[in-house]
């Protein structure tokens, strides 16, 4: 009798465990059946990843005594969140870590002035291009005249943000030991100020923003013959409905010439 009770208890607990596991699997299966767009709407949050030392795209700014992440990418992200009817959550990280964060599900999309290169398209999908910029070089203000062609960089130390297109451009101009790559553009700027690097390659609006805020820095326009860098939003592969929703917001913003407005406002905000 005692034994029978024991056996019964074991059988029962095994049944409970199985039913709990069964439920978990079912929930998971349902979750997987939901599209990315449905998941975002249900969670009430759009979690974006960015790398916020790239004015006027995205940067930190003290507003009313509070540190905030602002910039034209952020304005675009706000519009996407509001079109989806959800709250915007911003995660600031190193640029080089953004696509991994996207593919492991830590963030829903990347908006970071990211160029939709063929290499990146192998691992993620992209929205349409919402902004196009040329390349430029930040140097010490008194050095601007000395930097006119890629040749002028030959014996120089070049600073870049790790994992960017600009790092690739640098590789095409100087050997690897003349390239210093760091996670944040703000840190590369410190290297330039400390004469550890001679020139930093960035997109031209970024060069202008840093030069305007730092009297000791200037911008040299060098044509690297690499073409312009467009910016697009990166989304995990296979989220077709989410990409379509993002493109719809971008279409609306571009038709209303809102993006130019955001760029102008963000440039002004970065300037003071
Ligand atoms: N457009 C360049 C790229 O995709 C640089 C982007 C850097 N963005 C940033 N938020 N730091 O590689």
TrEMBL record:
This is Arginine-binding extracellular protein ArtP. It is found in: Cell envelope. SMART domains: PBPb, PBPe. Residues 45-266 form the Solute-binding protein family 3/N-terminal domain. Its main location: other. One of its GO terms (cellular component) is cell envelope. Gene3D superfamilies: Periplasmic binding protein-like II. It comes from Peptoclostridium litorale DSM 5388. Keywords: Signal. Residues 1-22 form the signal peptide. Residues 45-262 form the Ionotropic glutamate receptor C-terminal domain. InterPro entries: Iontro_rcpt_C, SBP_3_CS, Solute-binding_3/MltF_N. SUPFAM superfamilies: Periplasmic binding protein-like II (SSF53850). The keyword Iron does not apply. One of its GO terms (molecular function) is ligand-gated monoatomic ion channel activity. PANTHER family: ARGININE-BINDING EXTRACELLULAR PROTEIN ARTP, MEMBRANE-BOUND LYTIC MUREIN TRANSGLYCOSYLASE F. Belongs to the bacterial solute-binding protein 3 family. It holds the Pfam family SBP_bac_3.
């Amino acid at each position: 009798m005692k034994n029978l009770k024991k056996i019964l208890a074991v059988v029962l607990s095994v049944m409970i465990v199985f039913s709990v596991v069964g439920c978990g699997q079912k929930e998971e299966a349902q979750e997987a059946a939901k599209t990315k767009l449905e998941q975002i709407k249900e969670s009430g949050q759009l979690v974006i990843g960015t790398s916020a030392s790239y004015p006027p795209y995205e940067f930190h700014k003290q507003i009313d005594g509070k540190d905030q992440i602002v910039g034209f990418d952020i304005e675009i992200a706000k519009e996407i969140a509001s079109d989806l009817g959800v709250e915007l959550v911003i995660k600031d990280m190193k640029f080089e870590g953004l696509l991994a964060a996207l593919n492991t599900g830590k963030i829903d999309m990347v908006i970071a002035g990211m160029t939709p290169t063929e290499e990146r398209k192998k691992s993620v999908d992209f929205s349409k291009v919402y902004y196009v910029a040329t390349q430029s070089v930040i140097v010490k203000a008194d050095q601007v005249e000395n930097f006119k062609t890629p040749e002028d960089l030959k014996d120089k130390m070049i600073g870049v943000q790790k994992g960017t297109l600009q790092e690739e451009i640098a590789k095409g101009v100087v050997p690897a030991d003349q390239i210093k790559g760091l996670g944040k553009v703000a840190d590369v700027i410190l290297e330039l100020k400390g004469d550890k690097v001679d020139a930093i390659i960035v997109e031209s609006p970024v060069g202008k923003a840093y030069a305007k805020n730092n009297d000791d820095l200037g911008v040299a326009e060098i044509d690297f013959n690499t073409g312009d860098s467009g910016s697009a939003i990166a989304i995990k592969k296979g989220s077709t409905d989410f990409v379509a929703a993002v493109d719809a917001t971008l279409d609306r913003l571009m038709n209303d010439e809102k993006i130019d407005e955001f760029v102008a406002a963000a440039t002004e905000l970065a300037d003071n």
